[in-house]
Amino acid sequence: MDAPSTPIPSGIEGALDVTPQTRPRATYLEVLHDWIVTVDHKKIGLLYIGFALIFMVVAGLEAMAIRIQLAVPHNSFLDARSYNRMFTMHGTTMVFLVGMPILFGFGNYLVPLMIGARDMAFPRLNAFSFWVSAFAGIFLYFSFIGGLGLAGAGTAPDIAWFAYAPLTERPFSPGHNVDYWALALLASGIGSIGTAINILATVFCMRCPGMTLSRIPLLAWIYATVSFLVLVAVSPLTAAQVMLLIDRYLGGHFFDTQAGGSAILWAHFFWIFGHPEVYVLVLPAFGFANEIIPVFSRKAIFGYPAMVAATVGIAFISLGVWAHHMFTIGMTSFGNTFFTLSTMLVSIPTGIKTFNWLATMWGGKLRFATPMLFSVGFLFQWVIAGLTGIMLSVSPWNWQLHNSYFVVAHFHYVLVGAILFMIFAAFYYWYPKMTGRMLSERLGKWHFWLMIVGFHLTFDVMHIPGLLGMPRQIYTYEPDRGWTLLNQIVTFGAVIQAVAMAIFVYNLVHSYFAGKAAGPDPWDAWTLEWSTPSPPPAYNFPVDPVVASRRPLWDLKHPEDPDSAFE
Amino acid sequence: MSTIPLQHESLAATWRLPSRGRIGMASLIVAESAIFTIFVVAYIYYMGRDVSGPKPHDVLEVPVFGTICLLSSSFFIWLAEHAIAHGNMRSFRIWWAITFLLGAIFLGTTAQEWHKLITVDHLTVSTNLFGTTYYSLVGLHATHVAVGLILLLTVLLFALAGKVQTRHSERVQVLALYWHFVDAVWVVVFTLVYLVSR
Ligand SMILES: [Cu+2]
Fold first, then answer.
1. Taking a contact as any Cβ pair under 8 Å apart, which residues of chain B between 103 and 142 contact chain A?
2. Measured between alpha carbons, how far is B128 from A48 in angstroms, rounded to an integer?
3. What is the pLDDT of residues A206-260, one digit of tens each?
4. Tens digits of per-residue pLDDT, B21-59?
5. In A, which residues are within 8 Å of B49 by CB distance?
6. Taking CB atoms and an 8 Å limit, are A12 and B2 in contact across chains?
7. In a 10 Å sphere around its CB, with 0-12 CB exposed, 13-18 middle and 19+ buried, how is residue A152 labelled?
8. ipTM over 0.95
9. Which residue of A has its CA nearest to B26?
10. Are residues A205 and B20, on separate chains, in Cβ contact within 8 Å?
């Protein structure tokens, strides 16, 4: 397992770009101005990623506060109200201010480069979407100090991330906490829809000559599918937020149970968004795996058409499973059966993907650099998360375990074990492209192994208190329940993960100044982004590239045996 | 430093891609359809569940005139699209102005209807479930009409100033796509609110 950073293949040098890469030094003010007014997809991508990283640290600290509170029974680190705020803000932040922005950030940065375009289809819309999302984040956190906040403990939302009605109605939440939540999500939803429109138009209309839809990198396919999901899944949430605001500000009765309104309708609307949202977050992680696993196995991806079909299949099936979050609310036996079966159906396309990744690695020359380590961790954890998902999809089992720590463990297995691991892999893989410097492999290995240990201590063990009946969202528990030791192990694992995260952040900052120079193509990869200098110039490609296969850089490096001969 | 040599120049010459304006607008329409679907579902779900009046049957009148105006505007914007594609700028301006006028009349009839509902029937958003769902659904559509009218008016002013030419034909078509969508939504809203629930 030595460091794989030797390569820089020949064939990349000596091409046509003679534009000078150096510019006169700018003052700090000029640099700042440049970042604020930028419409360059790479800069906006980096803004998204930086914004998401800041909120990742914030929401991570909220998670730590939750874990400290639960480490011992009858703890008084947080009172009940602050505890409610912590888990509400942790969940809302991680989904809307960390997950979506970081994935949109990578999409923004990578999709145009990978399909040989010079920018997104609508650069100004792109900047608008980012700043609206950034506003949403700042607005949501302003709730801690805004309104009556400074006098008391803040007006931060305390309604859980799914904000069930009628708790969100005026009589039950009289302050401004729900308003902050609803308006922030409305703004972030508008940003997400804008970016989704942009990515779709980019993938379909900005491809370089020869880049047919059957040749675009799988990551581009995935981002197009995710964008479609955002259009049809985030829009219902936006609509539901508008209804909630009509209730709260205009005296409407959508979710007002006293006037005949329905609390269940909110649950439906929320989960019509909420379940596809899981796939909005996890599909880009699949996309990263599709790019990283082949390069570190030295083989082309196995089953490209099947991968595309599985991606689109997951997107469609995920639109018909939402009520598996509502088994305990009560449904007809037909409803129970339908949503159990449709949920189980998801395992077919995801299974296809998993087997294709394994088949890609099978017989390959595996290089276990940090991106690959995280990808392999992702594969294992994704399978386990999928298995507990199938358990939870069985409605009688679900009645037993709904709203318990088993569910919390399950979805954190997806969100951390699969998505976050692949995001880390993506950082180690593309950071050299974005900054021109390699991330430290030594720190990367520390990061990975600490993360693995911490993750499994926390989230493997967390299933057990769930099975023993510990409900989620309780701020404390009795000592005689037998949950104490388990919770302590979970908290201990969280501390290890926090250390791993600190190493990662240190690595990001330190390597920016002291990392090894990366060169254009440190991993000997095959997609177009590696044909540009690192970091790429504002215009990406001096001349429109022309491609003849799925792996244009392979063709370039191996003119004697090009992929294009086999298409 | 870095580019893939242009080995396949013949390909580059024949390379065609869809228009990003059209794909972008189609995507927006998908998102908007999802938003309208949620409001329509809420309307259907709450139909007849009110604990107090007034009921749709007592207060709503079928807005035949406004509906005819709005739906026929789709035809006139289609004529305008045709005119600009063939460089016939004079008839483009006329058809475009008629489209705008018909849209404005529709919005006027909605305003009149709301005025009557509020002052005569005392139905507001907060009166009952019917009020809440009716004003949100019809209001959401009216908002889209208003946005469309602003866009139509902008193009109209530029056209009257002579700044719109045949080369803008595609952009005009993209805008017309939005207008057709707004009209199509009205068919659904009209059928549901004024025919089914009444
Ligand atoms: Cu789900």
1. 125-126, 128-129, 132-133, 136, 140
2. 43
3. 999 999 999 999 999 999 999 999 999 999 999 999 999 999 999 999 999 888 8
4. 999 999 999 999 999 999 999 999 999 888 888 899 889
5. 260
6. yes
7. exposed
8. no
9. A197
10. yes
Which element (helix H / strand E) includes A222?
A: helix A218-250
Amino acid at the residue B128: N
Q: Which of A204, A521, A544 to mutate to test the interface with B (most CBs of B within 10 A)?
A: A204
Q: Mutating which of A216, A546, A553 best tests the B interface, going by the most B Cβ atoms within 10 A?
A: A546
pLDDT digits (tens, 9 = 90+) for A159-216: 999 999 899 998 898 888 899 999 999 999 999 999 999 999 999 999 999 999 999 9
8 Å CB contact of A259 and B17: no
Which amino acid, A390?
Answer: I
- Cα(A316)–Cα(A193) distance, integer angstroms: 18
| pLDDT > 90: percent of chain A | 82
pLDDT in tens, B136-163: 999 999 999 999 999 999 999 999 999 9
Contact B129 A246 (CB under 8 A): no
Looking at residue A144, its pLDDT comes to 84
Tell me the backbone φ, ψ of residue A517, rounded to 5 degrees. Answer: -60, 140
For residue A23, the model assigns a pLDDT of 65
Question: Which range marks the domain in which residue A327 is found?
Answer: 43-557
Residue A567 in domain: no
Residues in chain A with CB shorter than 8 Å from the CB of B129 are 253, 259-261
Beta bridge partners of A437: A517
CATH number at residue A329: 1.20.210.10
Query: Are A93 and A59 in contact, with CB atoms under 8 Å apart?
Result: yes
Q: How many CB pairs under 8 A join A and B?
A: 159
* Architecture, CATH, for domain B21-196: Up-down Bundle (1.20)
Question: CB–CB of A200 and B24 under 8 A?
Answer: yes
User: With contacts defined as CB-CB under 8 Å, which chain A residues touch B123?
Assistant: none
Contact call for B4 and A546, based on CB within 8 A: yes
Q: Where are the alpha helices (DSSP H) in chain B?
A: 9-14, 20-45, 56-59, 64-85, 89-119, 129-160, 169-190
Q: Is the predicted pLDDT of residue A561 greater than 60, yes or no?
A: yes
List C-alpha distances in Å: A412 to A60, A98, A381, B125. Answer: 13, 14, 10, 41
- d(Cα B136, Cα B118) in Å, to the nearest integer? 14
Taking each helix axis from N to C terminus, what angle separates A347-361 and A370-393, rounded to the nearest 10 degrees? 150
- Lowest mean pLDDT segment, chosen from A110-114, A244-248, A378-382, B160-164: B160-164
What is the tally of structural domains in chain A?
Answer: 1
DSSP per residue, A505-552: HHHHHHHHHHSPB--S-TT---SGGGGS-SSPPTTS-SS----SSS-H
Going A540 to A543 to A544 to A547, the CA torsion angle's sign is: negative
Of the partner residues B2, B20, B34, the one whose CB lies closest to the CB of residue A520: B2
Give A420 Cα–ligand 1 centroid separation in angstroms.
18
Full-model pTM: 0.93
Whether the per-residue pLDDT at A9 is higher than 60: the answer is no
